Amino acid sequence: MLNQIKGLHHVTSIAADAAQNNRFFTNTLGLRRVKKTVNFDAPDVYHLYYGDETGAPGSVMTYFPFPNAARGTAGVGEVGTTTFSIPEGALPYWRDRLAGNVAEDTRFGQQRLLFTAPDGDQFALVEQLGDARAPWAGNGVSADEGIRGFHSATMRLQDGGAMAELLGFMGYETLETEGNVTRFAVADGTGANIIDVETLPDAQRAQQGAGSVHHIAFAVENRQAQLEIRQALLDTGYQVTPVIDRDYFWAIYFRTPGGVLFEVATNEPGFDRDEAPAHLGEALKLPTRHEHLRPVLEQKLQKI
């Protein structure tokens, strides 16, 4: 069993409109845009990062806003719901703030406030006792109600057996099962330590598009830990990419048996490597290999 995984690092999804996406996550949810850059493989598409003040691992929701992307179809083989942690007593505030866009349920004894982003992607808020992570309070949501980071992510699968085995290999412990949902957690993580696996044997396969999670990333402290995980996964039979420099972290990727794309990302070097902490997410930052495209991209990319 591995012990290098420290919970979630980030979750990356697809959107259809950059400006709308930016407004929702900054103005409505009160998160900080910590980086405005572009997709490495499609530089005419933004890659936007939202999180806490520094973009700490376990707080960052990222998006590829492909202009006019078709809406995805929910199903199995994907991350279905991403859940944020809020302070005790903050649910009424968010119920009012998201009025008209909320539903409620209870999972493992915790009340959840369910809501959707503009492209239909599914989120939840949970009051998490003892979450000492500091929220970003610069976008109109006070520290008393602000989002601390991720609480968990829910994967929807036809069969959860292989995923349970993989998560166990990655250092996650099975906590409990409620109906068709099994909860897993890793100790000493980023605060975003929980994965829920929802088993839906008769559901259709998800079709990726706007509103779909593209991949889910797990955090490791450094490149040495990442290489150890990569070798262990290769030895187990997984097809794992080489290490890829994503400017703000190093990444490896592999496809899980249920179809969900996993990334393992380093906590180093962080989002302040090319911007002062007080000005994160303000300027358009381009990967070195795309810097020559700046005049074209600054004209083509939607203003946000």
From TrEMBL:
Domain VOC: 7-128, 149-267
Domain of life: Bacteria
SUPFAM superfamilies: Glyoxalase/Bleomycin resistance protein/Dihydroxybiphenyl dioxygenase (SSF54593)
InterPro entries given in the database record: Extradiol_RC_dioxygenase (IPR052537), Glyas_Bleomycin-R_OHBP_Dase (IPR029068), Glyas_Fos-R_dOase_dom (IPR004360), VOC_core (IPR037523)
PANTHER family (UniProt xref): RING-CLEAVING DIOXYGENASE MHQE-RELATED (PTHR36110:SF2)
Protein name per its UniProtKB record: Glyoxalase family protein
Higher taxonomy: Bacteria, Pseudomonadati, Pseudomonadota, Alphaproteobacteria, Rhodobacterales
